[in-house]
Amino acid sequence: MTVTTWATLAALGAFHGLNPAMGWLFAVARGLQERSRAVLLRSLLPIAAGHLASVGIVAALVTATRSVTASTTLAVVGGVLLVAFGLWRLLSQRHFRWAGMRLSAAQLAGWSFLMSSAHGAGLMLLPVLVAEPVPGGHPGHLTAAPVGALPGLAAAGVHTVAMLGTALVIAMLVYEVLGVGVLRRAWFNVDRLWAGVLVAAGLVTLIQA
Amino acid sequence: MTHWTPDPTFYPSPREAVTAPAEKLAYVAAFDRAASRPDAIVVLDTDPDSPDYGRVVGWTDLPHLGDELHHFGWNACSSALCPTAPHPHVERRYLIVPGLRSSRIHVIDTQPDPRQPQVVKVIGPEELAKRAGYSRPHTVHCGPDGIYLSALGGADGAEGPGGVAILDHTTFEVRGAWEADRGPQFLAYDVWWHLTQDVLVTSEWGTPSMIEDGIIGELLLGRRYGHAIHFWDLAKRRHVQRVDLGDQYQMPLELRPAHDPTKSYGFVGVVISVEDLSASIWLWHRDSDAWAVTKVIDIPAEPADPADLPDLLKPFGAVPPLVTDIDLSVDDRFLYVSCWGTGELRQYDVSDPMHPVQTGSVHLGGIVRRTAHPAAPDEALAGGPQMVEVSRDGRRVYVSNSLYGAWDDQFYPDGVGAWLAKLDVDVDAGGLIPDERFFPHGDEFRGLRVHQTRLQGGDASSDSYCFP
């Protein structure tokens, strides 16, 4: 993978980390509820783990599939899927539902996994992954699949580290300096922007195909 | 419709909600006891700089007759900022207005002209019955994941159990009954929660047949109305604990949890004790792993000449205070208590919730006193302070005078009238006084009775907060 690829993955991670719906706001709420910075910090790890799992599955699948098909089919199918999902996010009125506030670390990771998956966080990485040259070896050779998944997992890892770092900085900033009042002014509609990025990512993938 | 930044009326914490600008308008549920004219949502001007201050400036008739409007609420509020399922870009725009008698639910749009709200959707009683199994919808709360609506009765003529229905946030369709396991709960009335602690609380009144034709003396003296509150797991939707106040404490109605999400207490008002006709306020609080209640305020009945009393009370020779509504200021400092029988609104400093200190009192109306409003000192008032609503900054309190059609007629048999008063609060020292410029009454309400008030942008009993 090129430097640009890594940088793009990290930038997308920062974008995901920025979204209050992806977890930092939940971590801040838990910290404030218990009046404990440690609770805030402890909450971010399972949130990042859930995000990693969600993104990792998609990324591993994409790179593994790509190593065995090496065709434009994946890019086309993925691109169409991405545009459709983005439009659905943009136009649908539904929102993710999760009733509880008091979650264990495992439940918190599960919440993050579902939240990331429902928002199509992994799909957003598609154009980056699809644009990568097919890994060396023998295209069409099935044994390449497990190896092929590795770049995907590495990509998800880098992405998640960037996501966690961004979330950590924002969460601490809000918790220690700004206060939650900043939400009233600064919580711009990430969902709409997010959906737009999904559609754009789909189009880029299709063009590349 | 979604927005780029959160609705400006949403506040992440009660601390910040206190800084909200003063309301310019108030919405009031008004109903025709005779059911010969439509009930209405009435709009009052609450801007002291306006030439129409204290007057009716808008009127929206409902499409049917006999709804008996009672309580109502907003489609969305500050809970939209809660982090588990955030959707901060919806609007506080629609009033969800149930007909307590008709079981119809109205969705009323306060845009584009907040003074001329429009009925945009009516959910029939059959939909509430079919989807949720309930009737007689009562309390409305904007939850983070849907609109919560308590209901007193069962479907298809069944007396119960009453419970909580969920409405979809955006389509306002009835999604279903909220409860996964209701345990021993059967009677219903109010519902509210400790949102960040996954705790939901419900209270008890009576089934439709116990209330709709008036209070039934034998049932009351037989201690058959509700006398317990219920705690639930909000996430799992399961009954956790029933806390009995004692069967002499009939009708624990309004639930007012602390707005501070880190606090685990709340107040519930009890209408009447059958032992001495007193009213009381109870505090619920945690007691190690369980919930407990402690009586923190007792308001005794006042002796009276039976000749001055309605038939129902003549045998007792006393006026019960009949605490039928309470409201807690957003900063959790002052508790307002409506004594609808004696015609008094009391203010308590509840900074130490276990030990309330009375800091204010205003008399208006009352079964015996009939205290006039200073703006119309020659008019004896019927009814008393009943529904009480507090502005977000805690500086203004609005009270209206009707309790519930059939019960108004029993306690004020020569007519309850219609009036709404605003009281100004001294938020530093405590105490409150009537605003002489704000007293819509009588013909201004066109013969309808007035019940709950909701303030534009939110009020002390409309919003819940997920951040301290």
Secondary-structure map with pairings?
The complex is a heterodimer of chains A (209) and B (468).
Chain A: H1 3-18, H2 24-34, H3 37-69, H4 73-91, H5 105-118, H6 126-131, H7 144-178, H8 182-186, H9 190-208
Helix pairs in contact in A: 1-7, 2-3, 2-7, 3-5, 3-7, 4-9
Chain B: H1 14-17, E1 25-31, E2 40-45, E3 56-61, E4 73-74, E5 94-98, E6 105-109, E7 118-123, H2 125-132, E8 134-142, E9 147-154, E10 163-167, E11 174-177, E12 191-194, E13 199-202, H3 208-211, H4 217-221, E14 228-233, E15 238-244, E16 249-257, E17 265-273, E18 279-287, E19 290-299, E20 302-303, E21 318-319, E22 323-328, E23 334-339, E24 344-349, E25 357-363, E26 388-390, E27 396-400, H5 405-411, E28 420-425, E29 432-434, E30 449-455
Sum up the structure in keywords.
heterodimer, A: 209 residues, mainly alpha, B: 468 residues, mainly beta, Methylamine Dehydrogenase, Chain H, 4-stranded antiparallel β-sheet, 30 strands, 6% helix, Methanethiol oxidase (chain B)
Number of strands of chain B: 30
End-to-end span of chain A in angstroms? 18 Å
At CATH's second level, what is the architecture of chain B?
7 Propeller
Overall domain count of chain A: 1
Please summarize what this structure is.
The complex is a heterodimer of chains A (209) and B (468). By secondary structure, chain A is mainly α. Helices cover 76% and strands 0% of the residues of chain A.
Explain the overall architecture.
The complex is a heterodimer of chains A (209) and B (468). Helix content of chain A is 76%, strand content 0%. Chain A has 209 residues and is mainly alpha-helical. Chain A has one domain (3-133, 144-208). The longest helix of chain A is centred in the C-terminal third of the chain and has 35 residues, at 144-178. Residues 137-145 of chain A have low confidence and may be disordered. By secondary structure, chain B is mainly beta. Chain B has a single domain, classed as Methylamine Dehydrogenase, Chain H, CATH 2.130.10. In chain B, 6% of the residues lie in helices and 37% in strands. Chain B has 5 helices and 30 strands. Chain B has helices spanning 14-17, 125-132, 208-211, 217-221, 405-411; strands spanning 25-31, 40-45, 56-61, 73-74, 94-98, 105-109, 118-123, 134-142, 147-154, 163-167, 174-177, 191-194, 199-202, 228-233, 238-244, 249-257, 265-273, 279-287, 290-299, 302-303, 318-319, 323-328, 334-339, 344-349, 357-363, 388-390, 396-400, 420-425, 432-434, 449-455. In chain B, a hairpin with an 8-residue loop joins strand 9 and strand 10 (163-167). The radius of gyration of chain B is 20 Å and the shape is globular. At the A-B interface, helix 2 and helix 8 of A face loops of B.
